[in-house]
Amino acid sequence: MSKHNFMLFTLFLLLGTAISDQIVSVVSTFRHGARAPMSQSSWDKGIWPQGYAELTPAGMRQQYLNGVEMAYRYISQSQTISPTYTAAEIYVRSTDTNRTIMSAQSQLFGIYPTGPQIATQALQQGAVPPFKVKNQQQYISALGTNALPNGFQPIPIHVVSANYDNMLVGYTTAACPRFAEILQQQQESEEYQRKVSIYSRGLQNQVYQVFKENVTYEMAGYMCDTLTADKFHGFPLPDGVTDDLYYEMYANQNYTNSYFYTPEGARLAGSQFFQAVINQFDGTINGTSSIKFGFYSAHDTTLIGFLIFLGVWDGNNPIYASSLIFELHNNAGNYAVHISYNGDIILLDGCTDPCPYETFKTMMEDKIVPNVTEACQLQGNGRMLRYNYNPYLDIDTLT
Ligand SMILES: *[C@@H]1O[C@H](CO)[C@@H](O)[C@H](O)[C@H]1NC(C)=O
Ligand SMILES: *[C@@H]1O[C@H](CO)[C@@H](O)[C@H](O)[C@H]1NC(C)=O
Ligand SMILES: *[C@@H]1O[C@H](CO)[C@@H](O)[C@H](O)[C@H]1NC(C)=O
Ligand SMILES: *[C@@H]1O[C@H](CO)[C@@H](O)[C@H](O)[C@H]1NC(C)=O
Ligand SMILES: *[C@@H]1O[C@H](CO)[C@@H](O)[C@H](O)[C@H]1NC(C)=O
Prior knowledge:
alpha/beta, Rossmann fold, eight-stranded mixed beta sheet, 14 helices, 45% helix, globular, binds 2-acetamido-2-deoxy-beta-D-glucopyranose, Acid phosphatase, Histidine_acid_phosphatase, glycoprotein
């Protein structure tokens, strides 16, 4: 083949791929954007006008930009979803916290920046509530044809009360009591005992010097969460918090936020989510569902569990606004799943990228627990549980 022909051939291949390979369904799950620290600390120099644990304006911006990229990929480029909000195409679910609901809203605003118009002048005038609104006509005139100011598009965000949310916070002991036993078992392990012993001989003293608080191994990682919020928002850290100390505390958090994800723990926390991914993709393939975009707003601990379920976690606590995305590709009738995490390709052990759909589905189904409620019951016949408090399993301290 001449060089010229080869180039034409390559171009043809590229075009052929572009035309026949289509993204037909997407599931995105993400951590909320930047937020205030989870709770007050005497040493915290940050200013948090909305209070603790709330999404900050910077966090909103992160999610909005995530949404802009989603719109570029899945509206402009792949045309997987329609350019305007279409109720039948998208399902949005969030955990029941202010910051995750607001994160979903912010990201959706990036995807659908403009909402609907009211078609007729009669309806523009007639769409009023049963009582008289003060200065009603001014508001109506200002709206023009827009249903809402600035063409805002409201989008439903579904929420399940945290006690029952085994899909997105299935690692909490409130949603899944069995985690208390898993935690205890892990804390009794040699690895854990070794880490605590190293901590008490080193980091614990450093933390005490700087913060004037004696904190347990479990809480040292959690304290780092406040430092991370301060750093992100440009607030000064307490005197004596060196980069080294910060990263040591962060490394601690990597562990305390994840060690309860034994293979069983990852299955308990991930089964309902991965079942939802399979259901959505099955529904797209067999034509029984019109949902093409599944959207799940959650926490760092949620993403860690899903990544461990997939067998691909790199050990780093997910940063604000991290996204784990599953794309279902249809290449001339062959379906395959492409997975990415913060833009990096995720390669499943034993599969290719993209992973043929049937292989992906079998791999997921091998790990999915059919009845999570049942599997989450305590197994220890009322035996007294003794474990060190871990904030990540506590429904009141979802991160
Ligand atoms: C939402 O924010 C308010 C005000 O900070 C707080 O009282 C409330 O507990 C939050 N709700 C949830 C579910 O996080
Ligand atoms: C900190 O707590 C540990 C264990 O609870 C204890 O052994 C140690 O003496 C305490 N250190 C200080 C400085 O209070
Ligand atoms: C966890 O945190 C540290 C920050 O100190 C990071 O550099 C490290 O690579 C992370 N991952 C692991 C597996 O420790
Ligand atoms: C299509 O997929 C859905 C979701 O998995 C499943 O419930 C349904 O039985 C399938 N229908 C057909 C006709 O295969
Ligand atoms: C799952 O298990 C629970 C507890 O044993 C039971 O009440 C429920 O009916 C089961 N659900 C299904 C769908 O089998």
